[in-house]
């Protein structure tokens, strides 16, 4: 046992050096039952306060909030653009940060608020606590956090429901996206709550079920998910857009392909794709592949970022783990999302 513990300690130190490690173990909850939730997200206690006494010069609000659901409290930030304060229902995007990040950092790096302003889109940034994970990772690699009605998916879905009701959100246009551990959790939310989220965005993340503990998480990050994960995903599955750098040394790029394969399998797509090669304004190459179903509707989109590492493509250096040289992932995700409202 001592030899195994020493071996694990050496492995932990090795991976702790990674910039956005998506797989450190969570601190055990003092009351595991507080993670259990009904199959349908229930309302919790939602508290909002403006970060500043007055709104921004353009009339937008950038707020701090907290949400309590079945004994667990999540902090979050909420961006409400001036256009979204009108009476008409507006779209909403849930943004899940990566490890070592927080809501403010993720907002600054992705510049998603700037992109959402023109669309009148509300943007919700839930924040993982150090109590639940020492490096503020969403716990995507534990089975209890990969299921509907349990763990973090249940809490995040309930928070989304509560904010959507408070902000008069269009229920056909609620989306979720994330980076690394946040991308993995975004994929889990899309699979476990497909009636809630109209589309999903995953940047440098992993597919649901690619790990069941810390050891398998490290393996999936290093070499890609096991073959068994590429079995049929839950059906229905929301349309999905994926970004992944082919030089990512933190989360292997085969995870991006696995996410796309799962989406294509659900929609019964074998060879109905349109590919385009290009470069960002700063010269970084990419390959964009759009997949259509039998009716000609796009259901998946894959951006392979050539030479890119583990960072948000086209992000701003004001935030951590960004690659300013890449194509603007925020703008492209928003385009994809707004083209995919729920039709059922």
Would you mind describing this structure in some detail?
It contains 8 helices and 13 strands. Helix 4 (151-166) crosses helix 5 (181-192). By secondary structure, it is an alpha/beta fold. Strands 1-2-3-5-4-6-7-8-11-10-9 form an 11-stranded mixed β-sheet, sandwiched between helices. A two-stranded parallel ribbon has the order 12-13. Residues 1-40 have low confidence and may be disordered. The chain is globular, with a radius of gyration of 19 Å. It has one domain: Rossmann fold (3-Layer(aba) Sandwich), CATH 3.40.50. It holds the Pfam family Esterase_PHB. One of its GO terms (cellular component) is extracellular region. It comes from Comamonas antarctica. This is PHB depolymerase family esterase.
**Major beta-sheet overview:** 11 strands, mixed
What are the low-pLDDT stretches, counting only 5+ consecutive residues below 50?
A: 1-40
CATH domain class? Alpha Beta
Secondary structure category: alpha/beta
Mean pLDDT across the residues is 84
Roughly how many Å is the radius of gyration?
19 Å
What is the fourth-level CATH superfamily? Alpha/Beta hydrolase fold, catalytic domain
Helix content: 25-40%
The CATH topology comes to Rossmann fold
Could you tell me how far the N terminus lies from the C terminus, measured between alpha carbons in angstroms?
54 Å
